[in-house]
Amino acid sequence: MVWRELRGTEAGYDTPQVAIHRGKLHGLLVRAVIERVGTAHLHTGCVLADFSSRPGHVTASFFDRSGHTSVATPGDALIGCDGIHSTVRKMLYPTEGTPHWSGITLWRGATELPRWADGQTMLVAGGTAAKFVCYPIHRDHAEADRRLTNWGIMARVGARGDPPPRREDWSRIGRHEEALQFVKDNFPLDTIDPVAVVEATETVYEYPNCDRDPLPRWSFGRTTLLGDAAHPMYPVGSNGASQAILDAEALARHLSSAVGVEAALCAYENERRPPTSAIVLRNREGGPEQVIDAVESRAPQGFDELESVLSYGHREAIVRGYARLAGYAVDQVNRG
Question: Which of 46, 131, 170, 186 lies 20 to 30 Å from 70 when distance is taken between CA atoms?
Fold first, then answer.
C-alpha cells in the first residue's frame, strides 16, 4: 500500500464524493435541462457545419443526421463543448492537427460484482506502464451485497507521439484478451482479482490515451470552448469529466453576472484556462498516481519498508499538490 486516504465528507469536505455511471449522469443532466428550458430547446442528432459572429449575436448552422443543412440558428453565444475532435476548435485553430497519443491505451468496462472492501472504495494499482483501477458506481438496494463496478486498465503499448492504433472513440469495442495480458500475474491483490473482473464483463471498450497541447486562447467574441474541446487530457485523477463540470459552473456563473456576453466569456476563460492547461501537462507525468511511479522508480524490485523508499511527507506532497492544482483541496472546495 503506497497511499490511502478518505474522500468526501469523511475527508473534511462539505459534500460527499459520488461515483456514478456516465449514462446515469447524462440522464440526470438531460432531465435538468428539460425541467429548466423544456423539450422545445433541446435538439439532438445535429452536427455543426459553420458559424459566424456579428455584433450582438452569433449564428450557427447545423447538419442533421441525413446530412442536410438546417436553418441557421442565431444565439447570444456559441459554446463549443464537442469533445476532443471539436468542430468549433478546428474552426478556430484550423492548422492544429490531430490529437497526441501518449502510447498508452485504456480498456474499460463495468460489471456486477460482489461487494468488496467497504463497498465504496476506489482502488488504483500499478504505475504508468500498467495500471488497474476499480470502483463501484451503483448499488441496487434489492442486491445489497452487489455493486455495479467500473474498472479500467491503462498500459503502454507504443511510444509517445506515435499515431494511435485506432481513432479515439469512447464507444469502440475492445478485446478481453488484449486487456487481460496486462493484469495476469501483475496484480496479486488481496481485495479483488483483476482477471476475474475483466472476465466477468460482457463488453469491453478501448480508448487510446490522447490529449492536445494547451491553447493560448479559448474565447473569440461570443464563441468559446469548454471541456474536452478546450483542454482534452489523459483520464488521470478523474479530471477528464470533472474539469468539464467545473468549466460549466464557472461559465454559468460569469454569464449570469450581467457584465455582457463577451466580457463573461473572457472572464470564464481567465478563470479556467490557466489551471486546466497546467493539469493537461501534469497528467502527462501521471497526475496524483505519480506517487506510485515515484515509489516504483526507487524500488523496482520491491521493498520491505515503504518509509525508507519514499517518506510519508514526500508522498503526501505529490498527492496533495495535485489536488490543489486541480482545485480539489479541502479549503478550495469548501470555500467555493
Answer: 170
Quickly tell me which residue has 470552448 as its cell.
225
CATH number of the CATH domain containing 144: 3.30.9.30
Give the CA distances from residue 227 to residues 154, 224, 245, in Å, rounded to whole numbers and listed in that order.
Answer: 22, 11, 8
Q: What is the 3-state secondary structure (H, E, C) of 15-58?
A: CCCCCCCHHHHHHHHHHHHHHHHCHHHCCCCCEEEEEEEECCEE
The domain tally of the chain equals 2
Same domain for 191 and 231, yes or no, is no
Spacing of C-alpha 241 from chain mean position = 4
- pLDDT band at 187; cut points 50, 70, 90: confident
Q: Residue 169 falls within a domain, yes or no?
A: yes
298's torsion region: left (phi>0), alpha (psi -120 to 50) or beta?
A: alpha
172 and 266 both lie in a single domain? no
Answer whether residue 307 is part of any domain.
no
Instruction: State the Cα angle at 148 between 176 and 152, rounded to 5°.
Output: 40
- pLDDT bin (cut points 50, 70, 90) of residue 161 is confident
The answer to whether residues 72 and 138 belong to one domain is no
Lowest average pLDDT, out of 98-112, 114-128, 247-261, goes to 114-128
Q: Are residues 84 and 156 in the same domain?
A: no
What is the pLDDT averaged over residues 272-294? Answer: 90
Same-domain check for residues 138 and 186: yes
Tell me the pLDDT tens digit for each residue of 39-95: 998 888 888 999 998 889 999 999 887 877 777 899 999 999 999 999 999 999 999
Handedness of CA 307, 308, 313, 317 (dihedral sign): negative
Residue 132 lies in a domain: yes
